[in-house]
Amino acid sequence: MICTHFYDLLVQSNLSGGENSIEQLVDFAKKLGYSGIVICDNYQNLEKLNELKNNISQVKDFEVYCGVNIVAKNVNEMREIVNKVREKVHVVIVSGGDYSINRAACDDSRVDILMHPELERIDSGLDEPSLGAATQNNVAIGVSFREILFNFRKPRAYILNHIARNLMLCDHFKTPIIICSCAQSMWGMRSPREFVSLLNILGLDIGKAFSSITTVPQAIVEGNKKTLEGTKIMEGVEEVE
Amino acid sequence: MDEVKKPKPLSSSLRSRARYIAFQVISENKYIFQDLINSIWHSLLNLLGELGASEAEIWIARDIYDEKKQVGIIRCSNDKVEHVRTALALIERIGDNRMVVKVLGISGSIKATKMKFFEETKLTEFTKTL
After folding, report:
1. What is the reported pTM?
2. ipTM
3. Are A198 and A204 in contact (CB under 8 A)?
């Protein structure tokens, strides 16, 4: 049976580069049929992160989680930020593109998602060792809808080709796949079923396309929620009542 | 003998199978329906190309479009539904007006689409209440 709890794991609010407030994003997500969203602002400092967490805690009738999108210049910077934020947020996303960052994110089990590894590259940004490591460390490979939406003609054709290649490789290596809107305003968000169609026409099986926006993000969020609450001690060890 | 103006309809086994996509437009401001049609075709041609768009057998129903609720129907070929859905998702704006096309659902006939997604009811479903 197909799970119908849809999650968008990367939406940016007006606290960092985005356009809309959390309330507006939540209203629009409800309209589109989501069960939950993750407000993932670009990491600036811990004060901004705490402000975001406070704002999120005020939303009561919808699942809203706090995440961090790490846009790092090099591997050391990425690891530093991961060290700072891992114990504080529900989702840690690393913005890919540079091969060394892609590889380091795949090797780091504290990272949840490596987003758009093909960004501004002439190849797809992933290879066999990276995907092997990602599968082992349970790092999901993210597809960014914004990248497709705001590119046209030749760049879009290249991006679609690279994403299709990454999907094929992830399918082969059994690496989890996730699709996010990466929206900077509510007008960049789309209905979850449309994301399934996109992955499907890029060559992914419809069942796997559904799980990329339902069960995979749900597992990430719920696993990290338990860790933050202290009920999950380590992978496979949990406190149960 | 009367002049025959159009060809006879094909038998059902020779006809291509169609699907009807019910959609809703969520937009910042009001827009003209013709601009919406242009945006849909622009997106379809960008994503699928001319050959793909021809294979999709697109028909946008003008007379069914509800300007007040901003809902309408697009017919497409059975095997290109996912492609058309994606093309609709890739529409970002009509002119300067930002918008989102939300697919309400898909059905096999116009009648069923209207009943399922536009909440139209059959006259026979009304019962006498005293």
Report:
1. 0.91
2. 0.90
3. no
